[in-house]
Amino acid sequence: MEIVVAGRHTEVLPKYRAHVEQKLAKVEQLAPRAQRIDVVVSHETNPRQAGSSERVELTVVDRGPVIRAEACADDRYAALDLALGKLLERLRRTRDRRKDHRNHTPIAPVDVRPPEPEPAAPAPVDPDAAVETTLGDSPVVIREKVHQAQPMTVDDALYEMELVGHDFFLFIDAETAQPSVAYRRRGWSYGVIKLDAAVTAAPLATVAG
């Protein structure tokens, strides 16, 4: 398992890199198929945020869903411990969910259609791969990311949203094929917004003779 440590607006010393590799050895026990762990360390220079000036982001790149965690603290060692605790908890959820799926064998309906070829497994997506552009002549910077997506159920979308620790999650609904977004509401409730992507042709204009 490869561990990639990078600094964002800060320098990462070899001593800290070695500490990170030692700490992340626990990840392989819960995610033996993980290919890479991306570690991004960033520093906030604003003195008003001294208590959370060090941020550590951890991303596990696996053949399954991307699992991510991040945390802030007044030093990067404490931030790493907090982020690692969140990451290990999400990895345990993933492991338990896989066990439940293996133990549950639903009765599948009979399908008389010829089998379709299975889609190729998507290549791992680099969560930091992005393109930044400016909006015209303004100083506004737009950061764009493109992610490969497989259709999934709402339940799976909520599950993956929890794994990355976000308040929203974009996905393609497996039942309706609609672009959708799941989002967190107050308490333990969630919401789902779906887009009607149907495009109707504009009526042809008639020309008077």
Automatic annotation (TrEMBL):
<comment type="similarity">
    <text>Belongs to the HPF/YfiA ribosome-associated protein family. Long HPF subfamily.</text>
</comment>
<dbReference type="InterPro" id="IPR038416">
    <property type="entry name" value="Ribosom_S30AE_C_sf"/>
</dbReference>
<dbReference type="GO" id="GO:0022627">
    <property type="term" value="C:cytosolic small ribosomal subunit"/>
</dbReference>
<dbReference type="InterPro" id="IPR032528">
    <property type="entry name" value="Ribosom_S30AE_C"/>
</dbReference>
<dbReference type="InterPro" id="IPR036567">
    <property type="entry name" value="RHF-like"/>
</dbReference>
<dbReference type="GO" id="GO:0045900">
    <property type="term" value="P:negative regulation of translational elongation"/>
</dbReference>
<dbReference type="InterPro" id="IPR050574">
    <property type="entry name" value="HPF/YfiA_ribosome-assoc"/>
</dbReference>
<protein>
    <recommendedName>
        <fullName>Ribosome hibernation promoting factor</fullName>
    </recommendedName>
</protein>
<feature type="region of interest" description="Disordered">
    <location>
        <begin position="95"/>
        <end position="128"/>
    </location>
</feature>
<dbReference type="InterPro" id="IPR034694">
    <property type="entry name" value="HPF_long/plastid"/>
</dbReference>
<comment type="subunit">
    <text>Interacts with 100S ribosomes.</text>
</comment>
<dbReference type="InterPro" id="IPR003489">
    <property type="entry name" value="RHF/RaiA"/>
</dbReference>
<comment type="function">
    <text>Required for dimerization of active 70S ribosomes into 100S ribosomes in stationary phase; 100S ribosomes are translationally inactive and sometimes present during exponential growth.</text>
</comment>
<keyword id="KW-0963">Cytoplasm</keyword>
<feature type="compositionally biased region" description="Basic residues">
    <location>
        <begin position="95"/>
        <end position="104"/>
    </location>
</feature>
<dbReference type="Pfam" id="PF02482">
    <property type="entry name" value="Ribosomal_S30AE"/>
</dbReference>
<feature type="domain" description="Sigma 54 modulation/S30EA ribosomal protein C-terminal">
    <location>
        <begin position="138"/>
        <end position="192"/>
    </location>
</feature>
<dbReference type="Pfam" id="PF16321">
    <property type="entry name" value="Ribosom_S30AE_C"/>
</dbReference>
<dbReference type="GO" id="GO:0043024">
    <property type="term" value="F:ribosomal small subunit binding"/>
</dbReference>
<keyword id="KW-0810">Translation regulation</keyword>
